[in-house]
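Example complex used in Figure S2.
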Amino acid sequence: MSDTNNNNTITIDGREIPFEEGQTIMDAALAADIYIPHLCHRPGLSPHGSCKLCTVEVNGRSASACTLPAASGQEVSNNTEALNGVRKTITQMLFVEGNHFCPACEKTGDCTLQAVAYHLDMLDGHFPQFYPRREVDASHEGIVLDRDRCIMCELCVRASREVDGKDVFAITGRGVDARLIVNSESGQLADTDITTDDLAAHICPVGAILIKEHGYEVPIGRRTFDLHTVAEPGVEPVILKKGKHADEH
Amino acid sequence: MKSENGPGKQPGTSRNQADNEHLLHLLFDIQQRERHIPQRSIAELARQLALPISQVESVVDFYSFFHREPRGIYDFMFSNCTSCGDVSMMHSLSERLGVTPGKTRADGAVSIDTTSCIGMCDQGPALLVNGRTLTQLTALRLEQIAEQVETGTPVEDWPVEWFRVHDNVRKNGLLLGTPFETGAGLRAAVEKGPEPMLDEITQSGLRGRGGAGFGTGMKWKFCRQAKGDAHYVVCNADEGEPGTFKDRILLTSHAHAVFEGMTICGHIIGAQKGYLYLRGEYRYLLKDLQAVLERRKKSGLLGEKVLGLQDFNFDIEIIIGAGAYICGEESALIESMEQKRGIPRVRPPFPVTRGYLGQPTVVNNVETLAAAAHIAVHGGAWFSGHGSDKSAGSKILSISGDCTTPGAYEYPFGVSIQRILDDCGAEDVQAVQVGGPSGTLIAPDEFERKLGFEDLATGGSFMVYGKDSDLLDVVSNFTHFFAHESCGFCTPCRVGTTLLKNGLDKIASGHGTKSDVDEMFRMATMVKRRSHCGLGQTAPNPLLDALERFPHIFEQRLVHDSEFEPHFDLDAALEEARQISHRDDAEAHLV
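Predicted assembly (840 residues):
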């Protein structure tokens, strides 16, 4: 399949872009430097389709850009006022179901949820807070698990399984009681085989999985999203570095 | 193939030991024996089945019938369905036995809780005690139950008539009324050959009876054409839609036709293995279903060389669920079969190409398979000769609620709502919920509408609400149901169903304003449009239908003299402070 094949194109907000067989709408968009907001998607991991932030309309039907295979003739609406309104509501829902206190969070400025919220002009949580009770797991010597901030995106679940070759994380429970657990008899992170070298230890888009003893190394003002916008092409690897090398960019 | 399927779960092995050791079955045994799932059992099971500990743990937490804290020796679960539930009865038994609902009594003897519809809507109020179905509750029966508990009589020794479940077939039709000669459908299928029989099914116009209505012939054809190491037939008997119980009757009195439909499907698509996924609430049917399977094996209708054919081996196994409505969604059902949480998969790929263990799989409703067996005997034209243009054949309805004769009624498609209401003895009807909470709530001016895929599609639930029903209560019940049953995978449904539930509670408690109604409408529309699967896409239906057709049920509870009311009552929140300070004067109140 070649990019120049006229049949293999879709349009996103009127712009015609090529795609290759097997690509999703998200893949094609990222390759064409088109930003479709997303939280549970990360190139290199299997698509998940759970956060629904990448909701687009394909020939008038609602779909998740990260899971729907691209197909010739698709006319995709993405950056519209209506869809960004839906995305803002979804982002607000993610904020109120957990316990997110940005000013007190080490991840502030490096947090994709926060960046997406800014991108969508979200000024408040809008909905009544759920204030769930969630447990912190500080048992591991190098990693802390703060479930208050978990958004159930399962990036850590997939990173551990697909890249690290382990199975450290899982989601348990049902509905609004869903929560992140780890794979050990004690239920403690210290008793799993995770290490700070694992992708799963670094991939969290929020501040639910943090590396110990490395807090506030990059001052606020010079963090990832102080220097970049979440919609910037090629920002994914920068996000993963978590501001540490922000000065290089 | 990922590790989480466990060993012995590779496709192609038609008989493997592991199927008898399904995680859901092992957990049920532990729950019965220990009255909960202890932490050590989770690790033991994980080792035994070679699954990650977190996978076993997540399954325990996902299904309503497994508990991490011990339940009582007598564990009661009252249905909270508007038809087969009566939560006031739960409260009287709780009071009588000194139990706080949801908590096990201090001596460990009794626990009482609610559960989603248990499919006894024609003979409620009903409950499950230690997983066994108990129907037709009365105040007297509750007293008798309390006495059995107090005297420590084991549930096994309680009078058998308490547990009797009746078919209550009120109106026979094409399926319920046509005698089925065991083996006749399969013999016809074998004689005809797979291709011609598939054509027959296609020509019959049969569409899925679960409600979605996908063409059965088309589904079988796709699966037959799909390449794989093995093909599977799955009968979806996870009948969880509140108000539905017609599969219960088919499985009780027409199990041969259901199993024969599965076997015919197996012959056509080239499967050697079929699974019946039975909802946990129907566990009482298991023994009889297994006996039918045994008889079919002895008659050469199942097992090796079915009907003497050298190249046709087909077996059926039963997997029993554990209280999760979402598992009625076909891909969630497959996940559950694979010993995981019932999370709907991303589609495409569809199960017909990548289903159970990643192999081509047909998932059909119980009624669809029974119909297929009849079509094999009588031909496609026999079936398509009934019903309406776009909806061939008949539909078995489960009728419950405010009518004189609840039960199963079979009609050709195209029948009007009014005709059905007349037949079941429903008068002064305020509303009908067609197709269950995920279906359509209709008002009297729509009673001339007709059942069928072209007008009112239904999986069979038909709940009648008389003039004295509190419709806001009904909508609230359904909205709570969906929040309880949401799997939690996608944001719109996970968070949205709870926001809708909370919003409705606020209005029902007299604290809602016009802006709350507008907010709920906006949220309901979003959840319906943007959710991942059918659960979220239909969860807002009761609310949206009621807002459109019965706006007064909301308006009459609203606060009209203010634009906003907080969720909680500020003055009531000060009550504790008043008690502590021994004050009750005007100054100590906000109003």
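Confidence is low (pLDDT under 50) at residues 1-8, 12-18 of chain B. The radius of gyration of chain B is 25 Å.
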